[in-house]
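the two lines:
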Amino acid sequence: MPCQYEKPRFPRRWRTLLPRLVGLLLLQFFSPARGHTQTAAQEKPVPILSGTVGVLPGITAGQTLLDVQFNPVLLVPLGERWLLESRGEFEGEFQRAPGARSFGGPVNKHLDYLQADYIANPYLTVTAGRFLTPFGIFNERLYPMWIRALQPDPLILRIATATSDGAMLRGGFPVSVRATFNYAAYVSVPSVGLEGVESERHVGGRAGFFFPGPRLEVGGSWQKALQDTRKNSVGLHVAWQPREVPLSLHSEFVRSDQGSGYWIEGAYRLSQARFWEKAMRRTEVVARGQQYFGGNLGADAAQSLGLPGVNTREADFGMNYFLKDGLKSVVSYGRQFSSAGNFNQWTFGIAYRFLIPLGRESHQ
Amino acid sequence: MALSLPVLAGSSNRKEVLAGLPVVHSTDVDTMRTQGEQRFRTNCGRCHAAPQKFPPRAMATVLRHMRVRATITDQDMRLVLFYMTQ
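prediction for all of em together
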C-alpha cells in the first residue's frame, strides 16, 4: 500500500540546521541584553547640559537670608578620548534690609572650572585649563548641592582649595583584586587677573586607595604654595559605606598655615525602617561635627578667605527627602561655638539637578 | 558548527536546558550586568545617591565625566556604562 504522505525531501543537514537557525534568529530578536551590549559599546557620547538649581532660605544668627544658586555644567565629549567640561556658579545671597519688605543683595558669578581632559590610557588622564583643586574630597566630589548631604560648607573647605589654572595628571587603576589606586598631581600658575577667575600659584597632589570589598576609601593630599608664605598644606580623607547598613560616612582633616581642622559626617537612609516604608526609603538623616583651629593668618585675612576668624566648633543636623531623582528638599540646623559668639543656623530649601542632552539621544 | 546563543538571562531551568549546548555567552552578559551594578553601587555610592538611567549617549558622556572627576578605573567605567544602558 502506497504511503499517503510523502516524507519531506529536505536534505538531512537542513533538517538539523534549520531549527537552530530559526532559534538563533528568534533569540537575536528577543534578546534585549545583546542589543544593549551593542548599544553600550557603540553609542557615541553626546554633549549635555547639566547642573543644579537651588533655593535655600535660612536664618543665620537671627538674620534671614535667601540663598539662590544656579550651577550649570556643560560637558562636550570629542572623539574617543577628549572631554571639555565647564561649570559656572551664580549665587545670589539676598537679605532683607531693616524696614524693607523685599530681599536684595549681590549675585556672585564665578567660573568653577573650564578644562580639557585627554584620556591618554587606562592609567592616565591629562587635564589642562581651570580645574577644581583636588585637595581632599569635598571640593571635587561632594560640593554640588544635589550631592552634599548638608548645605552649609564645612569650616575648612577654603583651605588649599583655591581654584587652579594649569595642568593636572590624574587617574585610577586596580592594584589588586581588592584595591584600586587613584591619584592626581597638578601645578597651578598665577592668576590671569580677571574678575571671577582668580587663582594662585601652587603645586600639589592627592592619592588614595579604594577597597571595594568594605567600600572604604582612604587617602591624603598635599599642596605647596609657590607664592607668599610658600607653606605646605596636608590633608587626609576617608569615605566609607558599610554594606550592612545604608550609611555613608565622610571625613576630612587638614593642617596648614591658614588653619587646621576636621569634619566628620554621617548620612543614614531610613530604608530599613519598618513603618511608612515608602516615605522612609526617600528620607535621609545627617549629622556633622567639625572643628577649626586658626592658623597664622589674622582674623581679617582668614575671613577674607572664607575661614572663621577664630577657633570654631560646629555641629549640624539635617534631613533630606528625595522627592524624585535629582530633586530633594532639605532642612538642617546647626550651632556654631566660638569666642566671637555662638549662634544658630537654620537652612531650608530645595535642590534640583537637571540633565539635558544636546543632541539626539540615540544615533541609531 | 558552533552555535552561538548570546543572551539567555534568567532562570536556572533555562540554564540547565542550555548546559549541553556548545557555547553559551549568557553568563558573560549576566556577569557583566551583575558586576556593572556592583561597581555602580560601590563607586557612585561613594558620593551620591543612585541616579536614574539616562539615554545611552548621555550616559556615555556622564560616565566619561565621572571617570575623570571621581578617578574611577577604566574597567569600572565600562561595566557601569554597560549596566546603566540596559
